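To assess whether ligand presence alters the predicted conformation, the chain was also submitted together with flavin mononucleotide. Input:
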Amino acid sequence: MSDDKLSILVLLGTNRKDRESEDVAKWVLAKMQERDDIEPRFFDVCDFDLPRGHYGTEIGDSFPEWRDAVIEADGLVIVTPEYNHGYPGVLKSVLDTLLKEYIHKAVAFVGVSAGPWGGTRVIESMVPMVRELGLAVTFSDLNFPMIKTKFDENGNLIDEAYEKRVAGFLDELVWLAGTLRWGRKNLKSKYHQ
Ligand SMILES: Cc1cc2nc3c(=O)[nH]c(=O)nc-3n(C[C@H](O)[C@H](O)[C@H](O)COP(=O)(O)O)c2cc1C
């Protein structure tokens, strides 16, 4: 990981068959790859074979690639659909595999919904949960309401307004993730060496 680029993980938060959120996550990832200040990595909740009966940090060792990526990361982008005004259970289970590894890192949300609110409600419901993980939330979200109208059959985004929106969304994430990286390096905390 180069020192000047920020390591940001994109987590696709649903394992639903035919999920529309995948187009969104791939598009956001591509936008991150175009920038010279972010080194993104993609994770998909589908790739986590979660064992039954285990909770908390002991399960983190079962997914070394994810654990090591989060340890290295400066921030996360969580792409989540809205399911009954909440987040998919599998997304919560994946986040729950770790704890201390998230502390003092940035998180930004991308919400996806069939309805007109673009995941606003699911994002609001996630904020208290990620706070408990030690993550710091940006104040600009990216919302994809009426998702069926947003992409063509090849997965290309139709609405050009998102170009400006994603730039502002990522600028804000870069600022917060960079500030926290500086803080982890230079300020005393019992959570960092
Ligand atoms: C169990 C379930 C609950 C849902 N609840 C909502 C909802 O509360 N509000 C909404 O706008 N869309 C809701 N939807 C529709 C999703 O937002 C829609 O499927 C959208 O495409 C994003 O999810 P996806 O990535 O699974 O496709 C729900 C879908 C499922 C499967």
